User: Which sequence fits this backbone?
């Protein structure tokens, strides 16, 4: 007689079903221009499930998780995490390059002001940039970039 693997251990099985739901939702999160069905089909392919099985995990209709499904989901999630880390590293590098270019541009803009102020004998240079677009919200005080 076969015994239910969840019998007497309801929490671990519910936790596993919840985890499968999370993995399918995370991997199948719709990309820009993609609907939920396309994201779910992508998740099913990446995990190695049928569309119907991935659908049952996403909408919490599944009652059990087979060992091979659990292992496949863990591997797929690890691949997703690695891919996401690479994407975020590339985005961070792009933002760092933009920031360096902005700083160089601001330094060039400050040079003419510094020369004019030095001729006038002023100790402090005027405002180089006063704008809400330097990383602050429109409701916050403007940013003042002052050079000496």
Assistant:
């Amino acid at each position: 007689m076969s015994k239910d693997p969840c019998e007497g251990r309801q929490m671990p099985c519910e936790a596993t079903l919840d985890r499968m739901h999370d993995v399918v939702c995370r991997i199948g999160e719709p990309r820009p221009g993609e609907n939920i069905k396309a994201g779910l089909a992508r998740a099913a392919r990446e995990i190695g499930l049928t569309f119907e099985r991935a659908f049952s995990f996403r909408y919490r209709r599944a009652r059990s998780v087979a060992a091979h499904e659990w292992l496949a989901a863990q591997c797929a999630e690890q691949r997703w995490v690695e891919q996401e880390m690479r994407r975020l590293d590339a985005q961070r590098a792009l933002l760092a390059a933009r920031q360096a270019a902005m700083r160089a541009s601001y330094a060039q803009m400050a040079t003419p002001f510094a020369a004019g102020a030095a001729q006038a004998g002023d100790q402090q240079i005027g405002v180089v940039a006063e704008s809400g677009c330097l990383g602050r919200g429109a409701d916050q005080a403007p940013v003042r970039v002052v050079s000496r």
